[in-house]
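User: Here's a structure from my thesis project, written as structure tokens. My advisor, Dr. K., wants to see whether a designed sequence matches the one we expressed. Can you design one independently, without my sequence as a hint?
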């Protein structure tokens, strides 16, 4: 399904993003390459990079929702470029905050150019996101532009709130499951929701219809993150690309772990150890299995997934594109446990 969407929208999204990124000053050596690099266009020497980084899920989803609401997706391209640039801004800064040296199989921006330069590059991508959205004024009426800007601005605040909570939770012994859902709503689901809402607004200007699309995508984003939490512990490494031990060793407070910590003092003791050996990881997973953490998490995933489908039905996408929307949703959840 992703391949079909990329074939339909991908080249135009990329072209719009390149048009915006070309606005970067060219008289500052090395400045532009730091913005192009995380987008997957060049290597650290500003030479063309041969492999796409990221799946461009968010801009493709925005354009899909725009069509599903009856719009001409070409008019929504500025918004699609904006959300992808904003997403990459957040990744560049997240990698600094998480001390992550690798993203998409290659060194992160801060790892190559240092933290100070990476912060600046992230800020440039943030500014470019707004520069992209500015072009929307030539595509839709001013009232709709203001509505889209309002959604975009509010989403920025939710993204930073989600990241704040994520970092705060790293230093808390106990995190309530409700607080975790609040965190992933901001960090993972808010931008997907904004894509759906903005796409529908650009198509129709109808606030209520756009809200239905936004609610559909918000629940979808939460379900998707919960699905990812399951994969982080019980997923097939050949599919996920990482060891099932990774989330345990890093003491990531994912949903199944939080459920396990609520129901096992022994798991608490394991997580309080300074270092974790292979035997500790094995025991932690066994505890999660014993207390039913996997089943609980799958039930939560199903709950949010079904809420998403109910909201999608309320939005009532029309024509052949409705089938594409359903295929997109199904594809998101095809990664195996």
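Assistant: Designed independently from the structure alone:
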């Amino acid at each position: 399904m992703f391949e079909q969407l990329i074939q339909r929208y991908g080249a135009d999204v990329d072209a719009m993003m390149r048009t915006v990124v070309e606005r970067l000053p060219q008289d500052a050596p090395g400045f532009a390459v730091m913005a192009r690099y995380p987008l997957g266009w060049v290597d650290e020497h500003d030479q063309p990079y041969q492999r796409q980084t990221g799946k461009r899920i968010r801009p493709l989803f925005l354009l899909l929702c725009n069509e599903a609401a009856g719009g001409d997706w070409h008019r929504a391209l500025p918004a699609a470029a904006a959300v992808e640039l904003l997403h990459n801004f957040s990744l560049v800064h997240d990698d600094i905050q998480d001390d992550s040296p690798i993203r998409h199989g290659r060194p992160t921006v801060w790892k190559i150019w240092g933290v100070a330069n990476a912060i600046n590059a992230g800020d440039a991508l943030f500014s470019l996101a707004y520069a992209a959205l500015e072009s929307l004024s030539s595509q839709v009426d001013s009232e709709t532009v203001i509505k889209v800007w309002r959604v975009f601005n509010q989403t920025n605040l939710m993204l930073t709130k989600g990241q704040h909570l994520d970092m705060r939770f790293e230093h808390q012994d106990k995190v309530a499951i409700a607080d975790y859902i609040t965190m992933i709503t901001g960090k993972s689901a808010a931008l997907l929701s904004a894509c759906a809402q903005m796409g529908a607004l650009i198509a129709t200007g109808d606030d209520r219809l756009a809200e239905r699309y936004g609610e559909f995508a918000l629940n979808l984003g939460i379900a998707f993150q919960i699905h990812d939490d399951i994969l982080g512990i019980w997923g097939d490494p050949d599919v996920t690309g990482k060891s099932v031990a990774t989330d345990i060793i890093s003491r990531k407070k994912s949903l199944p772990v939080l459920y396990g910590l609520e129901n096992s003092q022994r798991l608490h003791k394991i997580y309080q150890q300074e270092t974790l050996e292979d035997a500790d990881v094995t025991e932690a997973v066994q505890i999660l299995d014993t207390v039913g953490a996997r089943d609980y998490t799958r039930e939560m995933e199903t709950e949010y997934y079904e809420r998403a489908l109910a909201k999608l039905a309320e939005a009532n996408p029309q024509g052949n594109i409705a089938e594409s929307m359903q295929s997109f949703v199904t594809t998101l959840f095809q990664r195996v446990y």
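When you compare it with your expressed construct, this may help: The mean pLDDT is 92.
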